[in-house]
Queue: 2 jobs
Job 1
Amino acid sequence: MRCKYCNEKCATDFCGYDCMNKYESHYALVKKYAGVFFLGVLGPIALVVPMFFFLEYMFLFVVVIFIIPAITTMALPFCPQEQVDYSGLKKTIHQCRLAGFFIIIMGMSMSLLIALFM
Ligand SMILES: [Zn+2]
């Protein structure tokens, strides 16, 4: 058996109270902010429609469409349960934040390309 938080080998679900507390406080956060998370991740997709009416500001829309979900994911690293079960919550949170960081870089570079070539 492995600790559900840090993924170290241990006899029970958690290797200690510290890991158990961190795991539980994460899921308390998930419960509290699940709505904010979905709005932050999926909400910006709605901006694709007005974007076509303001094509000269497309680079701004692209920044917002990428950056809002990325910041949401970094602030609220809610990840699929399968991933948490597989590699432990601690590692999954790090991966989630790293993914958010790369999405920001990607959004910035796409926006820059659009601003330069359109
Ligand atoms: Zn642990």
Job 2
Amino acid sequence: MQQTVLDPEGVRQQYADWADKYDSELEGPWQYIGPRKVAEGVREFLKPGSRIADIGCGTGLAFQFFPNSHITGFDFCDQMLRQAAAKIEGLKQQGTDVRLEFADVTNLPAPDKTFDVAISVSVTEHIAELSAMIREMRRIVVPEGVIALTAPETQLDGCIARSKSEVSELLLNENLLLVKAFGYRSHFEYAMLTRPAIYNCFICTKPR
Ligand SMILES: C[S@@+](CC[C@H](N)C(=O)[O-])C[C@H]1O[C@@H](n2cnc3c(N)ncnc32)[C@H](O)[C@@H]1O
């Protein structure tokens, strides 16, 4: 069956419309585990004060899993960033400071080598030119820094599915070393995402 993939404006509008309800739907009935899974995957690489870039941070659901760190969240949807901004004050209590930047994931407003870890959770399915996003994540992390991203291998309406081997090859092409990959199930049941989905999480390092 031919699947419809949204253009970037369509994606932005989808999240603008969803932003107010995103957290309550995902943390409630959907039992969304993507951010926690990615945080568990990179935990062994974190130190107190790690500089973390969250690429396509949305409402900042991942922030809570990175105590004692400096997080910069990048996203191109104002409404999602506004929800993320509302979490900043509470995160200070766990030693986490957060900055938010309006940005496209394929063109990040950050200097080279300024983060220890770059994560991206449930974003690649919207990015046609995934190699450009991976290149940006690689550019902004320090040598021996860590990159973690997820990709659904289940085909979902409005989204791009990618196999494990396809993503592994893209990472290799961008000169990243795949350290580990694992799968998990997401229970998306939003209008455009109508089936449980198998996601893969890829954890890589940037060679020195
Ligand atoms: C499913 S949400 C995931 C948000 C968050 N990472 C999480 O796990 O809850 C996808 C996010 O990617 C953002 N996004 C999609 N395409 C983007 C692009 N080209 N540039 C920046 N952000 C983008 C959307 O605005 C949205 O906030």
